[in-house]
Amino acid sequence: MNTQLGFLLNWGRKFCKIVTEGVLKHIMDPALISPASAAFLGIPTKIFSILIPIIGIGIFAFIMVRRISPLVKAAPDERFDRIAQRFGSVFKIWLAQWRQPRYMLAGMLHILIFAGFIILGARSTQLVILGFSENFVLPGFDGRLGHIYNFLKDYAATWVLIACIIAAIRRGIFKPQRYAVPPRYGKGHSAEAIFVLGLISMLMISESLFEASLTAAQVQKGIHAEFLPPLTLAWLFSHMLAGASLASLQGLHLIAYFIHDLTFFFFLCFLPFGKHFHVITSLFNVFFMRLDRGNIKPVRYGVADEKLDELESFGVKLLEDFTWKHILDFYTCADCGRCSDRCPANAVGRPLSPRFISIKGRDDTYRKYPLIGSNSGDSKPLIGDIYSEDEIWSCTTCGACEQECPLGIEYIDKIVDLRRGMVDEGNVPQSLQKPLGALEKRGNPWGKMEKKRADWTKELGEDCTVKILGKNKTAETLYFTDSISSFDDRMQAIARSTAKILDGAGIDFGILGEAEKDSGHEARRFGEEMLFQDLKDQNTEAILNSGVEKIVTADPHAFNALKKDYTEIPPVEHISQVIVRSVKSGKLRLKPVEDSSKIYVYHDPCYLGRHNNLYDDPRNAVDAIPRLKRVEMEGNCRDRSFCCGGGGLMLFYEPEEEQRMGVLRVQMAKEAGANVIIAACPFCLVNIEDAIKVSGLESQMEAIDLCELVVRHIIF
Amino acid sequence: MAGQVFAYIIHREGIADDSALELITAARKIFPAAPLTAVVTGSGGNLDAVCNEMAASYNEVWKFDHEALAYPNAEVIRKLLVNTLPGDAVVLLPHNTFGMDLAPGLSIKMDSAFVADVVDIEGLEGDTLNVIRQEYSGQVSTHVTCDISAGVVLNIRAGVFQADESKAAGGQVVDKSGETGDLSAVRKFLEIVEAEVGDVDITKEDILVSIGRGIEDEDNIEIADELAEAIGGVVSCSRPIVDAKWLEKSRQVGTSGKTVKPKVYLALGISGSFQHLGGLKGNPFIVAVNKNPKAPIFQVADVGVVEDLLEFVPVLTEKIQTG
Amino acid sequence: MEILVCVKRVPDTAENEIEVNRDGSDIERDDLVYSVNEWDNYAVEEAIQIVDRVGGSVTVVSVGDEESEEVVRREMAMGANNGILVSDDAFEGSDGKGIAALLKGAVEKGTYDLILTGAQADDGAGQVGGMLAAMLDMTYASVVNYIEVLDNRKLKVGREIEGGNVEMNEIELPCVLSIQTGINEPRYVGIRGIRKVASVDIPVWGSSELGIDAASIGESGAKVKRVDYFVPELGEGAEILEGSMEEIADKLIELLKAKGGIK
Question: What would the pLDDT profile of B72-81 be if each residue is shown by its tens digit?
């Protein structure tokens, strides 16, 4: 630090002699000649301080125009609704940096740097104008506010520099795993990160030197000096410069100014080239971020479901098929790696890392829309060029990435849009073609006969009869069973437990039987929109026909589909909500836990938790069983739950992976000290039970569905 | 009345295929006493050895030695048979990839009837031959009648008729090499591309743990691996497993895979299509585990377990491991 | 290259147990769903891929009842350019040779360099391709799992033979090939694809269009007739082990030990 400073001082001294010796004598006040009045080799430096911003802003404007051009060509998106809510998310997620502390160290560093940027924005603006307008002060900053501001900004510059140094050490020496770039995605991005940290540090140092040199000169000349807050960078510098000659200080003052000016505009123009574009775009990206969870974007905004047949093409095939918000997402990705760090597909070695969906998308956008030269006409399909098929099929749509992203970048809709494009081209893995065909023909992915859909009720016995609803038979509540609980031998137990709970709670309910089709939840998320629409229409008709007033389901995927994807049906509840309410009202009475030596843990299904915010009801339902001991998978529960491996069609897909997600999940449960994992989703149960077997933990761990657990404890 | 009965003999490296003697049994179910003629084609080498071997079982052996017959190109063989056999001949072929290649066209050129993949023969009533076939992967059988007055080509499923080992025909070899007629062909045989050699040779194993569709998921193959390890066997499979790329082609048992001769064969979740069973020779002790009690595999197995292999096999393995 | 692909509509047997109806005259069809024969689907995909490489067009033809139009349409949604349905009440009961004769009639109404069929069907005998080739005096190769277009007159064709080996042949066009599964990865056809071709006109050719004497076709012309369906007697099938899973395992271990099945 000292040698650098010494070098600057020396250099400044020489510079000074050439530039300002003559001028100095004539001007007594202010202490140093400002950049607006100084001259270099007879040329007023004002010229530079005017030219630098003009050129800088000119280049920046040019770059931005080029960067915006793909957004203009992109598919439409509807992001101007619910403005108040959008300002709310800007306040919370952008300004208050709400999601940053989820990664504590990096988050705090970011908050410090971000807060510094916000504070120093005014100072930087002032500095730029000071270069050609002597004694310029931003409006409103001339009185007391100005003093408070100056006080604050000196501390801000200091903590930003410290944060940058820590961040650089962290990046350069400790190298957290999540920043690593696997070889297939190219070179690492740490050099860029450290370079930018350097630029920021440069801004902080030069700003402080500019200020400190003036103060030191003022002190030397006995003029009233600006108060420098103790222990700030400027304060430190002014003390170090106390002994320097006026000439040196004058040189340093001007050098610091122009270093700051150049760095500032260089930084501005450098931002749109890499991951620091978020400095500019984040505000907008957060404003436009998705406000709903669990839903899927329409095939094309502005085209109603009934008009889908008229569309020439479905989904994303070329870059421009993405919506403008999705391309803005690419620009905004700060490469922080949190999405991929939480991505279960990435964790098990599937060829998907959400971070690189963005980074590759961004690089492709830059390639196809270069700054100089024409927008590339060779629009190659994205699949096979920058994304691989397996990469796109690997996503379980669990939503962990979107939950984590501090910038409001979305992935599920992009993945679904890319899948829609592949489906439209017939590019679907063989392993998925059979279940899709069966869904089309038989309304369930196994191709089982429709007439066997209600067969699970046969084993219920006479204590609990399940009505099959139709024209002549109605009930207040429909239990929407969905395919897996209807047909899978093991999962039928969930259906039977659900029926017994509803019966025990005295609810007048029935099922659709043969008339029920798969909810189509996964068909839609696997990109087969028309198949989904078909299933939706058939189910909607059957539901409306049945005359029910409410719908209950025990399958979170069905729950999410009925709630988010269906529009004209009665309100939908998850069975856990019914259980909690019935226990409260006394309609369901539960006896103490059968085996009190067991330690239970609740696994949040993605489509109950993250996508529908149902975290507490299932837990309360479990806790309603007296004396049941329950632990949490701390750090991996609630909105940080780890996907079991995916439901629906994901059961049929054969991903390349090193291990199963379920195996990792079982490990987490084990580490939490549990020996029974409670799932509230048939797919979770399939995956977790399999994972227990695969891990060879049959003797130590077991899995049970929430409904099965509750039913065992009902006092009938 | 149908004409003379011919069987086409497939042979490799001087040894006749198992089908050569099975076709005799099949023919006897149509004509209990009629003389049978074997047609043996080739070019030099071991051809005589095959002819002599066949003469023990067939009343007559027609030998065709011609350079165009060096490789059994179905198009060339078809021409040969059309040129040399009587128009109302009864021709028996094995229902394998060669028979499937040759027979349908042969029946057209000879203007005779054709029945593919015959699994049983009930007999002849006048000119009507009654046979049994299977459909839908063996889930149902059908009675089929066939008018053989103008001759017939019958493709006989491998392994369903016992080989006739009596070798008491005392037949003679008739060299008909001069009567082949025009054997020019538009389809030219180039080469055989051998299947990749895998890490294990399932054809040399005594104990095979073979898996089929019932394994459901690639990850479940471990279940079979563990059983194989416990009993000292090796894992093999049926075609769908290879199609799904879960195991290498070299592990596939069946007509399009390897022919194996183990002592014990555990068929786990294998329905038992004839293409699969066609690769199983040497009368092994077959144990079938399948949750579908109607699976055809139970018809050929010695012992059956009607359970889901995913549940049953781990139990079995554990019991074996714990002794 | 002008390619004709012959396709068949068959019951989808993947998850459906095929059962025989009461009088054995047919299988129980009430709860069946139908689709294009799997092997034929591979053949259509292969044809489309060949045309993508060397140009030309793909025509799909099916012999069957009116319902078979559905599979022709599906294959057109897949990418076939034209579709033809060969259908006439007089064709009912045709044997393999009858079907081949009908297809011959259809082939002769056009000009094709290459004709593809599936190697077999679940309810068939794997015979029509070979018969059709012989009737047309074209070269034939069955169970094809590899096709390479050498030039506009020649193909290199691989046949899947025993032991997983491949028999390579050089074949001159025009020819008939029967296609084995696994030769390619057929593309997916969704509802959207089918709707796109929903209004495409598919000509229906009966005996008059094909100029075929109805008497030579159909049941009357068939030499091979299916009399009935039946479920094979289990007879001397496997000895089914009974009991709990544990008990079965114990019994099985005994048997395996006796047969040298446990080393």
Answer: 999 999 999 9
**Residue to substitute from C127, C166, C179, C246, interface B, most B β-carbons within 10 A:** C127
C33–A531 C-beta distance less than 8 A: no
Domain positions in chain A:
2-74+84-273, 318-430, 444-584, 588-712
Q: At the top level of CATH, which class does the domain A318-430 belong to?
A: mainly alpha
Which residue of C13, C15, C48, C194 is the best one to mutate when testing the A interface, meaning the one whose CB has the most A CBs within 10 A?
A: C15
Predicted pLDDT of residue A294: 96
> What is the average per-residue pLDDT within A402-411?
97
CATH of residue B150's domain is 3.40.50.620
The nearest CA of chain C is from the CA of B69 a distance in Å of: 15
**B187 within a domain of the structure (yes/no):** no
Is there a common fold for A444-584 and A588-712? yes
| Run of H or E residues at C96 | helix C96-108
Model pLDDT for residues A318-327, shown as the tens digit of each residue: 999 999 999 9
For residue B280, list its beta bridge partners: B260
- For chain C, list the contacting chains (3+ Cβ pairs, <8 Å): A, B
From the list C14, C188, C191, which residue is nearest A426 (CB)?
A: C188
Asked whether residue B254 falls in the same domain as residue B307, the answer is yes
Chain A residues closer than 8 Å to C35 by CB: 437, 441
Q: Calculate mean pLDDT across residues A294-299.
A: 96
Residues B167, B210, single domain; the answer is no
**Which amino acid would we find at residue A670?**
K
Give the residue from A288, A292, A339, A394 showing the smallest Cα distance to A610.
A292
CATH number of A588-712: 3.40.50
pLDDT on residue A462: 80
Query: Residue A18's pLDDT is what?
Result: 46
Please give the model's pTM, rounded to 2 decimal places. 0.89
Does residue B320 contact residue B230 with C-beta atoms inside 8 Å?
yes
Which amino acid is present at A675? N
Instruction: For chain C, list the domains and their CATH numbers.
Output: 2-221 (3.40.50.620)
The answer, for A488 touching chain C at a CB cutoff of 8 Å, is no
Count the domains in chain B.
2
Does the beta-carbon distance from C192 to A529 stay under 8 Å? yes
> Which chain A residues are Cβ-neighbours of B213 within 8 angstroms?
none
Task: Judge: C78–A531 Cβ closer than 8 Å, yes or no.
Answer: no
Q: Which of A121, A129, A127 is nearest to A153 (CA)?
A: A121
Write out chain C residues lying below 8 Å of B301, CB-based: 237-238
Q: Does domain A444-584 have CATH number 1.20.1050?
A: no
Cβ–Cβ contact A430 with C under 8 A: yes
Distance from CA of C196 to the nearest CA of B (A): 31
Q: Which residues of A touch B222 (CB under 8 A)?
A: 694
**Which residue type, as a one-letter code, is found at position A566?**
Y
Mean pLDDT value across residues C168-191: 94
| Structure token pair of residue B162 | 């016992």
The domain of B239 spans 202-321
Mark whether B142 and B287 lie in a shared domain: no
**Average pLDDT estimate for C106-110:** 96
Give the closest residue to B2 by CA, choosing from B187, B128, B96. B128
Structure tokens at B245: 């790329």
A630-658, pLDDT tens digit by residue? 999 999 999 999 999 988 899 888 888 88
Question: What is the CATH number for B237?
Answer: 3.40.50.1220
For residue B68, how many other CB atoms are within 10 A of its CB?
Answer: 18
DSSP C186: P
Residue (of A518, A318, A317, A535) closest to A426 by Cα position: A317
How far out from the chain centre does Cα A609 lie? 16
Q: Which of A448, A490, A654 to mutate: most B Cβ within 10 Å?
A: A654
Among B190, B231, B300, beta carbon nearest to C170: B190
Do B125 and B15 have their domain in common? yes
pLDDT in tens, B231-241: 989 999 998 88
